[in-house]
Specification:
Helices cover about 40% and strands about 20% of the residues. By secondary structure, the chain is of the alpha+beta class. The longest helix has 25 residues. The N and C termini lie far apart (about 75 Å).
Length: about 190
Amino acid sequence: MATRKSNKSLWVMLALIVIILLVILLLPGCGNRNAGQRAGEDTTALVRVGDKAPDFTVEMFDGAEISLEALRGKVVLLNFWATWCPPCREELTHVQKEIIDRFEGRPFVFLPVSRGESREAVAAFREKTGYAFPMGLDSLRTVYDRYASNFIPRNFLIGPDGKVVFSAVGYDEEEFRELILAIEEALAKAE
């Protein structure tokens, strides 16, 4: 009798683990850095390194509007993210110290844009995390859909000439270090 109960418990636990793994893997476009890639190419990116970055105007959390064209002459890190995305949240924990503070006073702009979320969701996230840096709102995905068809976090580093000089999807420490080096290189060319 005890063996049947322990076997049943084991099967229930295994089923739960499988369900949890499936939910994580099937989250809508979050964090799988190799998703959509074949032979090292991201097939979900609509804009690639060397392409002119599509212009856009985005409403910022504070109500102001900013266009990519208005940032011409600066190095811009366009970051797409969402509050529900674990890799996005992990990446954002590093942004203030390792990107914003590091490049302060230089011709650089960090422009995080929330993909497909309401102002209320972003407000609650900012309150919970204490983030005070500017954030763009793209609740209808009009900006994101010019750059990619799926997957976040997603970064496009745009040079002062308006061309993409680096792009990345997903988050891991090594790629984040590569992003920082790419920002340094782009700024060295711009200054």
